[in-house]
Amino acid sequence: MIEVLAFDSVKLLEILAVVTGIAGSVLNARGQRSSFYVWTASNVLLAVLMIRAEYWITAGLYCTYTVINFYGLHVWRRQPPTVPFVDNPPRPA
């Protein structure tokens, strides 16, 4: 019998990785520097999952994304982010 709702540690990590990935995207769209920290957490979780599954190339991809996150954070520390997409200017009445 297959248990559909059985939550083991791998499923929990996967859910957490997806939720943090989405949260990082939303924060980035709002121009928040914290998005890089959230994305880094997501990428590390996904890398761990891929290593456990022995998907070495995909694990390398998530490790590369983590390095890019640190680079993006470094760049954003030196200059403020651009105006985010979600901040629409008010329309004239």
Summarize the structure in words.
This protein is flat. Helices cover 68% and strands 0% of the residues. It has 93 residues and is mostly helical. The longest helix has 23 residues, at 56-78. The chain has one domain (9-78): Methane Monooxygenase Hydroxylase, Chain G, domain 1. Helix 1 runs antiparallel to helix 2 and helix 2 (34-52) runs antiparallel to helix 3 (56-78). The protein has helices at residues 9-29, 34-52, 56-78.
Which parts are unreliable, with pLDDT below 50 for 5 consecutive residues or more? none
Could you tell me the number of beta strands?
Answer: 0
> Per CATH, which architecture?
Up-down Bundle
CATH fold name, please?
Methane Monooxygenase Hydroxylase, Chain G, domain 1
Task: Write down the CATH class.
Answer: Mainly Alpha
Could you tell me how far the N terminus lies from the C terminus, measured between alpha carbons in angstroms? 63 Å
Give the fraction of residues assigned to helices: 55-70%
- From the spread of the alpha carbons, the general shape counts as flat
Mean pLDDT, to the nearest integer, reads: 83
Integer tally of domains: 1
Biggest beta sheet summary: none
Determine the number of helices (DSSP H or I, runs of at least 4 residues).
3
Beta-strand percent range: under 5%
Secondary-structure element pattern, one letter each:
HHH
**Rg for CA atoms:** 17 Å
